[in-house]
# Entry
Amino acid sequence: MPADGPVLDVAGLNAAYGEAKVLFGIDLCVAPRQIVACIGRNGAGKTTLLRCICGFVKPLSGVVRSHGSDLIGLAPYDVAKSGVKYVPQDKKVFYDLTVRENLELGSYASGDRNWEPALNYFPKLKVHMDRKAGYMSGGERQMLMIARALLGNPRLLLIDEPTEGLAPGIVSHLREVFTDIARKTSLVIVEQNLPLVCAIADVVYAIRDGRVAAMFSQRSEMSFQTFEKFL
Amino acid sequence: MTAAKSLASRALSWWWGIAATLLATSLCAVLLPTPFMNEVMIFAIYVSGCNFLIGRLGFISFGQPAYLAIGAYCTAFYLFYVGTNPLVGLGVGVLGGLLGAIIIGPFFVRLRSDYFAMVNLALAVVLFYVTQKLLVSITGGDNGLWFLTQMQSTPLLDLTAPAQFLWFAIIVATAVTVMFKYLDGTIFGACCLASRLNEDKLQFIGYDNFKIRLVAFIIANTVTALAGAMYAIYFGFVSPEMGSPSRAAEPVIVTLLGGVGTLAGPLIGAFAYTGMKDVISNLIGNWELFIGFLLVFIMLVADQGIWGTLPPAARALLVHLRRAAGRARN
# Structure
């Protein structure tokens, strides 16, 4: 697989659910070790964008490349195997499986038996290894999903609304974790939590009605007041 | 020493349930009538396949009689037309079921659970028609194929003798249970369960949901065909009635009755269902109606099935009694 080019290059992406068009020519670029945030109102098309990238929604047209390889047309499991992992919004882990079994699933699929780096981000999981994931709190489930996605050292993580409904303490922990993860792995985070976006994002895309309304890459441009206009 | 102890305790925790079930079944084999026990054991194997489909994949199939008939007819064809060794006949039946599942599976497992249930029922109807009307010259139509007296005795356990067949059936049922218990502890078992819980998420992690479903489908229906082959050998006879679509709900009902997804569920369900049929049909004329009401009652009272309800209830009672004893001491 060619290692050159951006970790993610989305160009002119159009997508629809049946007759309803949702994305209109989205362009987005993610460089190595970069944290890219997508902000916007509910229904703006942020989740659809992530689902197009990870192969769950077939776009009408456009380009999705990772390190020069085309991702369009790949099945979701092949996209995951190529190193682009998706952590969905709903925090629904496999609730009948234990934490260990959830991690084993990720481990076996990625061929990565070393859980230490992923578990070091979330030491709390080590205590609950034999607990059924369904009995964990929302924050712990989010930790488990991120830890599982980190197995196999993906080159890109797509994380949908990671802090939604979580306690402030966990949000601040996740903030540190995302900054740490970005030393090796690029991140695309769909997020409405503007303080978090301001604190960690290198680039912010504001999405409105399925289009990129604005793109911010300078620290000086990133402020709560600027982003609030897009929510 | 500690490692050996931990290994021993793991092995014990793995085997004790199987050993206890085997012991209880053997005891029943000695105490209860042989024909009844034979039916229970084969029925338990039959239901095991259905239990795996529902409990692990979340797929209800109303076409299990079709896979049962495939196994039974393959065995019958061998024993009627080709050879006389029931063990070879059993192998042919299992192989037929395996091939059938490999051919049918790729088309069926793509479907959603509700369509999967219906398309399997359609398959059972087609197969019933084929065995009853279309291939009468080969299947014997409604008269079926008789080969009871053609079968030769087998060494160690003579499958032509019902009393010895029972021990063979117990061994096979135990082997099937051990296989499903082993699968439960593997990544494949976890994938099956994960596929039932959320198939999209399984793909996010990097698994091909189709392949997982297909392998599970093949395993479940090969086990069902094994039960069909055993029925054929035990009765020495097959007829289209064995795969009749009118009996399509039976394995599903017994799976629910025993406890969906539990290892002991198929055996408990088969015991309860066959027992109810045997006892009640001796006492009442319209026994089907009574059993229907009884099943509705059991499922309303215990929606987790017998094995999904009784052990947790017993544990809760034990905890309650211990607490009561503790309070009395204080």
